[in-house]
Every structure is written in structure tokens, then in C-alpha cells.
Amino acid sequence: TEKAEVDQIFNDAIDVLSAEDKRLPQVQTLLSVLRRGIGIHHGDLIPILKEIVEILFTKGLIK
């Protein structure tokens, strides 16, 4: 399913983050938004999250 693909891409990408960074609110909340097909991309996001959004958008998994 698309949600499973979003989960896989997200989880693979955040593996590079430290445990502390994984607890950041933006990391904790972004997956639930992405699973609904919604992408958020702005200057305050950490770079890996922006990259995830760009990948998912390119694959047509989010708008």
C-alpha cells in the first residue's frame, strides 16, 4: 500500500538521526501527516525531513 511505502521510506531515512533527533516534535508528527498524503516543506524542517518530503512528492505519494 501507499502508506506502507511512505512508512518504509520515512523509517529508512530517519535511521541516520540520533535518538535525540528522532524525539524532535517535527520528526514525531511528520509521519502521521505524510501517511495522509500531505507534505510539509519549509525552512524550519531539518534537512532529512525535507528530503523525505521531496522523495515522496516525486514518487506521487504526497501532495
Account of the protein in words:
By secondary structure, the protein is an all-alpha fold. The protein has one domain (2-58). It has 4 helices and no strands. It has helices spanning 2-14, 19-22, 25-34, 47-58. Helix 1 (2-14) packs antiparallel against helix 4 (47-58). The two termini are 17 Å apart. The mean pLDDT is 94.
Q: Give the N-terminus to C-terminus distance in angstroms.
A: 17 Å
Question: Fraction of residues in helices?
Answer: 55-70%
Number of helices: 4
- Mean pLDDT, all residues: 94
What global shape is seen? Answer: globular
Report the sheet with the most strands, covering strand number, pairing sense and barrel closure: none
Count of distinct structural domains? 1
The string of secondary-structure elements, in order, is HHHH
Structural class: mainly alpha
- Total number of beta strands: 0
**What low-confidence regions span 5 or more consecutive residues with pLDDT below 50?**
none
* Rg for CA atoms: 11 Å
InterPro entries: P-loop_NTPase (IPR027417), RNA-DNA_Helicase (IPR050699)
GO molecular function, one term: hydrolase activity
Keywords: ATP-binding, Helicase, Hydrolase, Nucleotide-binding
